[in-house]
Write a structure and sequence with these properties.
The structure is a homodimer. By secondary structure, chain A is of the alpha/beta class. The first copy, chain A, contains 12 helices and 11 strands. Chain A has helices at about 25-40, 90-105, 125-130, 135-140, 145-160, 165-175, 190-195, 260-275, 290-300, 310-315, 330-335, 340-355, and strands spanning about 5-15, 50-55, 80-85, 110-115, 205, 210, 220-225, 240-245, 285, 370-375, 380-390. In chain A, the strands form 2 sheets. A 9-stranded mixed sheet of chain A has the order 3-2-4-7-1-8-11-10-9. Chain A has a two-stranded antiparallel sheet with strand order 5-6. In chain A, a hairpin with a 4-residue loop joins strand 10 and strand 11 (about 380-390). The longest helix of chain A has 16 residues, at about 25-40. Chains A and B meet through strand 3, helix 2, helix 3 and strand 8 of A and strand 3, helix 2, helix 3 and strand 8 of B. Strand 3 (about 80-85) of chain A pairs antiparallel with strand 3 of chain B.
């Protein structure tokens, strides 16, 4: 059953991603919230409830942030607010919660914000905070680059060296970000740079180099969701053909590392609900926290069988103009990855494409777009399939 | 509209609350989850989705805990999981999210766990972690006792000294906990002790003394929720006459401190939806994080007008046998307050009363019970009104 079909996205806001020293978490949340309400033409008084997707885990001292959304407009005071946290899939957890409330009929108009303030800490501090999203009983002391390096090593050992494909992914996402003014990094890189360890591209966690890792970012994104029967009252509307979430066990030791099992299940469920195959998709935004994650996603999403993702990537299937353009926004790799914002940002990027409002990122004739937001090492996997309603 | 009526509580689990050195957050979550499934007679494979209410904010290094629930049973792997965080109202936020999913028809059987591991840190560390739930831009460095001391001072200045009423609340909740084997503290206190500052009852934040403050606790509670149309298949079922949540602004400076405005709105909405008044309630579990919070709740809940709560308390209206027995479990004051567990624990305590399974805590002829779970200084206010279905 596609209960997500009962809601539509009718507006959005999105701060620039980057090191935004002048903006606090609260500033980011409220900027995105106001922009989304303005964009939708929704008065704050019409909002029935708000949700925040945010990871935190020590990134900021603000331990209770859902009600910060209410500060965006005096009319939001006394609305229900909930923060959802599923590590890097927190934004999608917030969207899913709002979709449930709309399908339940409790809420007609929902404001969902995803936000993260990360650059207040130094890199070591951020690495430590993010590491909290791993299984502390077995993985304490491991960083997330190290966790995804385990995936890369397992992949190499099962299917052969993925280095070339990973470099292509990095080059593609850096190139795509050039068309996205909101992206954190506007710096094209060469295949040669991405392929080789160098002073400027050091190993972070063997075999992953700097060019394989996503960014540390501040940023927020927001969407206004309304009950589908209200969509006709808005100048544009994007609907959900599917929204599916699958969670897997936290310990790495409990999972196969040569494939993304949880994500594969989430894609399969979403395709079934939407009644589509991967070839019906016009574009996808996927969770390239590390290039190996995008490679494994290329397989889980159905572009290639086990071990075949490298060839699909190197052939250019995921480039603009390819079989399925992936991360035209620049992805987490170059757009940036303010953790709690990412899932909401993906929805904004897809919605803009479907409405023909993606600027230089725009693909022709976008009919169906997919967002895949992941928490931890393939732990929380959320897949949305979006379509234009009007 | 009471969308919460579409769900019923059919089983529960509840660890002892206290300093549980041998149990990790994961152990607590999984113990409560397994007990709730066993109690409901639900096979883990029947569960459609799980929710976790947890505050954390540095209490434990585990930064991504929703999927820990899945470790409770192999059949839970790949179920959707979301963590909800609304400071001390995290447990209720998780319940509300599950109620939405059930009313939406996405989920027929939900497992909701609330949990917190607090005693791994020393008292200063816990105080610092909890302080994260205040507005850091204006209140950084303030502890929660200091925040609620502001309410007590404002109340005293507006209506006169509340000390005697606060002492009665403390004495009552300590006495009530004696009947609750799961309570952290089984130690009756005298009115004389609670009234006076002493070596054993020092000021924590003037005018609040040790006897006015709730406990630092480890613990977890869980409930199994099913779609109301399935309730007949279970040996017992507790329904929701209402579930309402209201969020207020985070800064203390934005709020009146002489009354609980957000909670009063949540009570009023819940009564309206349920079609009842306070005098229809058989009992209530309310958020006595500090005795001043219970006093302000006595007014917000409708037992007394502004400033009249002291008299209602001193007269014994909230005692067992009084007009509305409050916190027969011992409350946060003596049952304990593992932050994320508290909202779920309240629902378990009320459900047991309504089913006649509350042991020595049992009140006669319990027909309607209320749970009031609050995050921050009257920021997130969740009110449930529960009734026996069968």
């Amino acid at each position: 059953m596609n209960i997500a079909a009962k809601a539509a996205i009718v507006g959005w806001g999105h701060t620039k991603f980057g090191k935004l020293d002048a903006l606090s978490l609260e500033d980011l949340i409220q900027a995105a919230a106001r922009e989304a309400l303005d964009d939708a033409g929704v008065d704050a008084a019409q909002v029935d409830a708000v949700w925040l997707g945010q990871f935190n885990s020590g990134l900021v001292p603000d331990g209770f942030a859902s009600s910060m959304i209410l500060g965006a407009d005096p009319a939001l005071r006394f609305k229900p607010a909930i923060r959802c946290e599923n590590a890097c899939a927190s934004g999608s957890a917030a969207i899913q919660s709002a979709l449930d409330a709309i399908a339940a009929g409790r809420v007609k108009v929902a404001l969902v914000v995803g936000a993260e303030k990360m650059t207040g800490l130094d890199t070591a501090g951020v690495t430590r905070a993010l590491a909290g999203a791993s299984y502390q009983k077995e993985e304490a002391g491991m960083s997330f680059p190290q966790i995804f390096a385990e995936y890369a090593k397992a992949y190499a050992s099962e299917y052969g060296d993925p280095t070339e494909a990973l470099a292509h992914i990095s080059v593609k996402n850096h190139a795509n970000a050039l068309a996205n003014p909101l992206a954190q990094m506007h710096r094209p890189i060469t295949l040669d740079y991405a392929l080789n360890v160098s002073d400027k591209n050091p190993l972070i966690a063997d075999p992953l180099k700097l060019s394989d890792c996503s960014l540390i970012s501040d940023g927020a994104a927001a969407i206004v969701l309304v009950a589908a029967d209200m969509a006709k009252d808005f100048r544009r509307a994007v609907g959900f053909r599917a929204f599916e979430q699958v969670s897997d066990l936290l310990p790495l030791s409990a999972k196969k590392l040569t494939a993304f099992e949880g994500p594969a299940r989430a894609f399969a469920k979403a395709y079934e609900v939407a009644g589509i195959t991967v070839d019906d998709l016009s574009l996808a935004e996927v969770h390239d926290c590390f290039t190996i994650a995008e490679l494994l996603t290329v397989e889980a999403i159905g572009l290639a069988g086990p071990g075949g993702g490298r060839r699909a990537v190197i052939e250019g299937q995921t480039l603009r103009g390819g079989r399925l353009p992936i991360n035209l926004s620049g992805g987490l790799k170059a757009k940036g990855h303010p953790v709690g914002a990412t899932g909401v940002s993906m929805h904004v990027m897809i919605a803009r494409q479907l409405m023909g409002e993606a600027g230089d990122m725009q693909v022709d004739d976008a009919k169906l777009g997919l967002a895949f937001n992941m928490g931890g090492g393939a732990v929380a996997s959320a897949v949305s399939i979006l379509e234009p309603l009007r």
